[in-house]
Amino acid sequence: GRETRLRVVLRVRPLTRTETRRGDQRVVHSLSDSTVHRSATSSLGARHDATFGFSAVFDASASQEAVFEGSGMRQLVELAVDGFSCTVFAFGQTGSGKTYTLMGPLSQTEAQPAAPALLGLMQRSFSYLLEQSQSHSSDLALSASYLEIYNEQVRDLLSPGPPCALPLRWSKSRGFYVENQLCVDFESLEAIANLLLQVPLTAGSQRRRTSAHALNRHSSRSHALLTIHIRSQAGREKGCQSIPTHTQTWVPQPGACPSKQGTLCFVDLAGSERVKETGSSGELSVEANNINRSLLALGHCISLLAKPRGKRTHIPYRDSKLTRLLARSLGGSGITLMVACISPSSRCLSETLSTLHYASRACRVTTRP
C-alpha cells in the first residue's frame, strides 16, 4: 500500500551503419550510470544542451546482461512470484531498439536461437523464473496470454486461426480486461521456457503486424502485450486441496493452502514516427496515425499522473485501448519498469528529445502496489 515510483531506465542504442555512412553526429552522451546529456546546435548556431536523470542509463556499449541486471528486472520477477502485478514496457522512436531490448535479435528462430549474450529481457526473465522455481519452497503454476493492439483493435496472438478482434470490457472487480482471450496453461516452467524463450519470434510474434519503411526494415505496427500469470502455492499439507491452474478464474477452495497470484507483463510498444520521414502512405499511414494517437493518449495520461495526487484531474484511460490495458500498471496497484530507448543520431534529435521528456515525466508517477 506504500506509494512507489515508476522505475524508469534509459537505453541509448549505437549509431547504425547507415547513420555512420551518412555522417550523422552523436548528440546524446552518458555522463554517469544515471544521467545523460543531450547537446545540439540549431540552424541559427545556438546551442541547446540539457541533462536528464533516470534510475539507470545504459550507453551504446551496454550488453543485454547489463541491462537486465541494472534495470531491476531480476527484482521485478521476484515480486511477481511474491504475488504482485508487475509490468515492463519499452517505448521510443521506431528503430530505437525496443524489440531488441525485450526479445533480442529479430533473426532468431527455433532452429537457430540467438546467442546467449544477445537474449533480451523476456528470455532472461524466464530463465530466472526457472531458477526461482527450483529454489522456491512453493509450487509455481504458470499460464500466459499474448495480445496485440492493431489499429485500435485488440487481437489474440495465441488463438488458432487468423487473429480476430476481441472486446475490451470493464468491471469493478477486474478493471479493464479482454473478453474471450486465450490463456495457455503450462505444466512446467520448462514448457513455458521452450515456447516463450525460443518460439516468440516464430509463433506469436510472427503473426504480429510488422512492415518496412524508410526508418526501420522491421517496424512494429502494433503494441504487443505478453502476460505471464504466476500462482505460487505454499507446500501442500494434509487436508489441502488441489487448486485449478486457470489464474484468472481461480476461486479459493475450502481447505486450500494459502497462495499468491502475480503477473509479469511485457509490453512492446510500436514506435512513434513522423509519417513524412518514414515515407509511409496508404495503409502504413493509417497504421502510423493510430500508433501516434494511442501513444499521445498514453503520454497525456502519464503527464496527469505525474502531478501530485491532490492536484490530479480525471485520468482519461478510456481515450485508447492501450491506456485502458495499462491503467493498473501506470496509476493503480502494479509495479512498473519503463525502458526508454533512443537513438544518439542528430537526425533523430526531435524524437529523441520527445522520448527524454516523456520518460522524465514518468519518473514522477507513483502507484500503490
Describe the structure in your own words.
This is Kinesin-like protein. Belongs to the TRAFAC class myosin-kinesin ATPase superfamily. Kinesin family. InterPro entries: Kinesin-like_fam, Kinesin_motor_CS, Kinesin_motor_dom, Kinesin_motor_dom_sf, P-loop_NTPase. Its main location: cytoplasm. The chain has 369 residues and is of the alpha+beta class. It has a single domain, classed as 3-Layer(aba) Sandwich (Kinesin). Helix content is 28%, strand content 28%. It contains eleven helices and 19 strands. It has helices spanning 17-22, 64-71, 73-81, 98-103, 121-135, 189-198, 275-278, 283-305, 321-325, 327-331, 349-362; strands at residues 4-5, 7-12, 28-30, 35-41, 47-53, 56-58, 85-92, 139-150, 153-156, 165-166, 168-171, 175-178, 184-186, 210-213, 216-220, 223-233, 259-268, 335-342, 366-367. The strands form five sheets. Strands 2, 6, 7, 8, 9, 10, 13, 16, 17 and 18 form a ten-stranded mixed beta sheet that branches. A hairpin with a 2-residue loop joins strand 8 (139-150) and strand 9. It is globular.
